[in-house]
Automatic annotation (TrEMBL):
One of its GO terms (cellular component) is bacterial-type flagellum basal body. One of its GO terms (biological process) is bacterial-type flagellum-dependent cell motility. The lineage of its organism: Bacteria, Bacillati, Bacillota, Clostridia, Eubacteriales. The keyword Iron does not apply. InterPro entries: FliE (IPR001624). The keyword Magnesium does not apply. Pfam families: FliE (PF02049). GO terms for molecular function: cytoskeletal motor activity; structural molecule activity. Keywords: Bacterial flagellum, Cell projection, Cilium, Flagellum. Residues 26-47 are annotated as: Disordered. It comes from Clostridium luticellarii. The gene is fliE. It comes from the Bacteria. This is Flagellar hook-basal body complex protein FliE.
Amino acid sequence: MRINEYVPDSSIFDFNKTVQGSNVSSNISAGNTISDDAKIDGDTDTDSSISDFSSMLKSKLDEVNRQQLQADNSTQELIEGDRTDIHNVMLDTEQAKMSLELAVQIRNKLVDAYQELNRTQL
C-alpha cells in the first residue's frame, strides 16, 4: 500500500464508543463526571464541540491526503513527459511534504496530551 492511497478510518473519531477491557472507558466516564460537575450555565454543548473537532480533523486529514495525491500525480506526469514545469512539480511535492509533517506533529501532540491526561491523578 502506498502512502498516497491511504484513506483515514473515520471510526477513530467516534468518541461515544467505549473500549471494552481497558481503562479508556473509565477515564472517559471519569472525565464526563468531572465535566458535568464543572459545567457553568451558558456553556456550549460538549457533544457538538466534539463532533465539530472530529469533522474538522477529518477534513484536514482529507486535505493532506489530497495534497499527497496531487504531488504524486504531478510527479507521475513529469516522469511520463506530460509536464515540463519541474518547478510546479517540486512546489506540489514540498507542499505535500510539509502538510504531512505538520499532520504528524499534530498527531504526536495529541498523543502526548492524551498520555498526560492518563497520568493525571484525580
